[in-house]
TrEMBL record:
Residues 206-226 are annotated as: Disordered. This is Lipoprotein. Residues 214-226 have a biased composition (Polar residues). It comes from Myxococcus stipitatus (strain DSM 14675 / JCM 12634 / Mx s8).
Length: 226
């Protein structure tokens, strides 16, 4: 019995979807979702686990980002193929049998590669001494305004926040509080990040959003590695 079980396991492993471009048996495909953002989709057959598909997702992400760090968001699940119905006549009656379809897994998500060159260039950008960078949190728009205007409008504002050392505070869809490099604002918006206004920074974000520490999960932030 052990021998038969081992043979069955080997047979199932041989039938799993390999790492390949999307085909009839599944695989991966990717496309550009927005500037600097790639969408990756991975599908497998009935013998391929979600964990294996997630491994394929990260393998493809690493290839796209040339081995550099990247930020990512991922969803996964499984769907059933349509059932097959078979009718068989037995005497004067007809027996109908349903064969459920195979359950196949899928993984889809977004990837933002960490661009070291862009991060360095942004931090090196000189802001005039009489100007201060601020962000309008709803639109993600960053502007350099006079210090007088900035310090009269931003403190305790629910609309604006200061840009500090080329970065802004944000909360990821998972509730992690992070800092985002201004060069990655568009990528962060596409990934669903919410930028924090000065009033939120003063009062603290809600307990669910403040569960994680700064630096985890942020495109362009230091030590980003998910």
């Amino acid at each position: 019995m052990r021998t038969l079980a081992a043979v069955a396991l080997l047979g199932a492993a041989a039938c799993t979807t390999p790492y390949q471009r999307m085909g009839f048996a599944g695989g991966y495909r990717d496309s550009l979702a927005a500037p600097g953002i790639n969408r990756i989709e991975v599908r497998g057959n009935a013998f391929t686990s979600i964990e294996q598909l997630e491994a394929y997702f990260h393998r493809r992400a690493s290839e796209i980002c040339n081995g550099n760090k990247y930020d990512w968001r991922m969803d996964s699940g499984a769907s059933n193929d349509p059932s097959t119905w078979t009718a068989r006549q037995v005497g004067r009656s007809v027996q109908v049998t349903e064969t459920p379809g195979f359950r196949k897994g899928w993984v889809t998500g977004l990837v933002a590669c960490e661009d070291r060159g862009m991060t360095v260039a942004t931090k090196a950008t000189q802001v005039p001494s009489d100007k201060v960078q601020v962000i309008e949190v709803r639109s993600g728009r960053v502007a350099a305004v006079s210090a007088d205007v900035a310090f009269s409008k931003v403190p305790s504002s629910s609309r604006f926040a200061f840009v500090t050392d080329g970065r802004v505070a944000a909360v990821t869809p998972e509730g992690h509080r992070v800092f985002v490099d201004v060069a990655k604002i568009e990528a962060a918006k596409t990934l669903g990040y919410r930028f924090l206004a000065d009033s939120e920074l003063e009062n603290g974000v809600n307990e669910n959003e403040a569960a994680a520490t700064t630096g985890d999960n942020s495109p362009g932030a230091n030590d980003t590695n998910r």
